[in-house]
Amino acid sequence: MALNQNSNEFHWLMDMLESVEVGLVVLDLNFHVQAWNGFMEHHSGITASRIQEKNLFEVFPDIPQAWLTRKVDAVAMLNTRAFTSWEQRPYLFRFRNTRPITGTEEFMFQNLTISPITGSNGQVEKVCLLIYDVTEFASSKRALERANEQLAKLSMTDRLTGLLNRGTWENLVDAEYERFRRYSQATSLVMLDIDHFKSVNDSYGHLAGDEAIRQAAAVIKNNIRQSDSAGRYGGEEFGIVLPETDAENARVICERIRQTVEKLVIDTPPGTIRFTVSLGVCQLTEEPENYMQWMQKADEALYQAKESGRNRVVVG
């Protein structure tokens, strides 16, 4: 592989990089290929003789031309190196990933270094692209990030229902309380409880009871908005935060949940389960001094729903 005469001093680097696992591409400032090492030949399937003097963007139309042109122009103007990591742009060349250890990744992740090459007059005449295969590292980091995201999600959610767990949900109640203190927008809190849940467990068993809890949670999720937050408060009790919702609109949402649960028929090996829920609603006012007092008022409304016959919504 030969370099143009003005780049003779670059031969030693070419000899070294020809046999290592680093891609090397030398371009003139019009993006015509001047050098193309063995790494590039192997992963592209294009030999150096075939690509010599060809325009890079014509051979690889999927390369982001505007982006690379800006990078190269800056390197040439400032006569300084530029670096790009796979986290900024996963790859420059769309090479298939050939490493068996990271076989789950479809394409090679790449770090890129762009270096200026000056002529005898001291002016930048060419640039050198060094392409590093960092698939192994990137794949491991991405797998770790996915695992951490999953762990974070698991730490925030209730395993049985997929709703927020008590601690996470209470934090959101607290945040909504503080938001009300600042902006005074209407917001409501709902406490919900499965009626006579002990008898469900006693009659059908705990597995059937768990299924009743799951079904109730599914009804809640399907009947609230994306901006609302539902959590499993404990056992068969649930809570819902309804931002920007006054008591009447909260009652409408709760009534929809109540009616849907009332129509549920759950077939289990021990028998068919039907159950109802009671709901207490409290629109936040200036009276509660903290979010716990707000929750207490919603809980008192739930207690009234239970005491007055169950399977109903009470607005406190």
Automatic annotation (TrEMBL):
Check the record and name the Pfam families matching this protein. Answer: GGDEF (PF00990), PAS_4 (PF08448)
Q: What is its EC number?
A: 2.7.7.65
The Gene Ontology CC terms held by the record are: plasma membrane
All copies of the GGDEF domain together span: 185-316
The alphabetized UniProt keywords are:
Kinase, Transferase
Reactions that this protein is recorded to catalyse: 2 GTP = 3',3'-c-di-GMP + 2 diphosphate
The entry lists its GO molecular-function terms as: diguanylate cyclase activity; kinase activity
Q: For this chain's UniProt record, which GO biological process terms are given?
A: cell adhesion involved in single-species biofilm formation; negative regulation of bacterial-type flagellum-dependent cell motility
> Which cofactors, if any, are listed as required?
Mg(2+)
Q: Which InterPro entries match?
A: Diguanylate_Cyclase (IPR050469), GGDEF_dom (IPR000160), Nucleotide_cyclase (IPR029787), PAS-like_dom_sf (IPR035965), PAS_4 (IPR013656), Rev_trsase/Diguanyl_cyclase (IPR043128)
**Can you name this protein?**
diguanylate cyclase
Organism source for this protein?
Marinobacter fuscus
